[in-house]
Write a structure and sequence with these properties.
- With 230 residues, this protein is mostly beta strands.
- It has one domain (30-228): Exo-inulinase, domain 1 (Jelly Rolls).
- It contains two helices and 17 strands.
- The radius of gyration is 19 Å and the shape is globular.
């Protein structure tokens, strides 16, 4: 390889590494990749496997209600959360600005970045045990003070779904700033919400990961990190 080309490639690699480092500036890891330290949930379903937080249900060990793995590190308000996930069968989600409803069963309610093994729900904003679907994939929804929703389509939901890898690792990013909530999968905006219903909207709350009731499923999360937004 000519020296000039080799030097150019080396400089490019340094630039890429620096750019990645700058992109991660301000983020802190919230999972050690080894065990459930810093998290609490039902260990009949939750464990760490292959360096990932893992929820697994089977016909022999089914779930009859949604249960959650709850982060014990605080109640973030404005933040950017990044994680990788993989799901095989069933449904799951990332809870944020949420609250514990049943401590014994680790039941949580609040905003959820939805995850689905089918083409239906991934990327939407669902409010668990509250207002239900607030923004479909491919839409920007504005929730009025009276709770009425107006939705504008910004992308085709099926084209967005095609960007999600089935039964493989995907990147999920949630940005919550004030009443503005955005969900991205693999770098692509999936849904956006402006929540003006002040008596229902949450400004802070816990983070949690969902294991969903129903047929056998496995969902895994890794590389979870969060950055507070000022």
């Amino acid at each position: 390889m000519p020296r000039l080309l080799a030097a150019s490639l080396f400089a490019l690699s340094l630039f890429v590494c620096a750019a990645r480092g700058a992109d991660e500036e301000g983020f802190k890891s919230i999972f050690n990749g080894k065990d459930l330290t810093g998290w609490r949930g039902d260990t009949k379903f939750w464990s760490v496997q292959d360096g990932a937080l893992t929820a697994k249900t089977t016909r022999e060990n089914p779930l009859t209600y949604n249960t959650f793995l709850i982060w014990e590190g605080g109640q973030p308000g404005d933040f950017e959360l990044r994680a990788k996930y993989k799901i095989v069968g069933g449904n799951s989600g990332i809870q944020y600005r949420s609250k514990v409803i049943d401590e014994a069963k680790f039941v949580v309610g609040g905003y959820q970045g939805d995850i689905d093994s089918t083409p239906r729900y991934s990327g939407i904003l669902y409010e668990e045990r509250a207002r239900g679907i607030l923004a479909e994939r491919g839409t920007k929804a504005t929730v009025g003070a009276d709770g009425k929703k107006e939705a504008a389509t910004f992308a085709d939901k099926d084209e967005l779904q095609a960007k999600i890898k089935k039964e493989d690792w995907n990147d999920y990013t949630i940005i919550a700033k004030g009443n503005h909530l955005q969900h991205f999968i693999n770098g692509t905006l999936m849904s956006e919400t402006i929540d003006n219903q002040k008596d229902k909207a949450a400004t802070t709350g816990i983070l949690a990961l969902q294991a969903h009731a129903g047929p056998p499923m496995t969902v895994q999360f890794k590389d979870l990190r969060i950055k507070e937004l000022k």
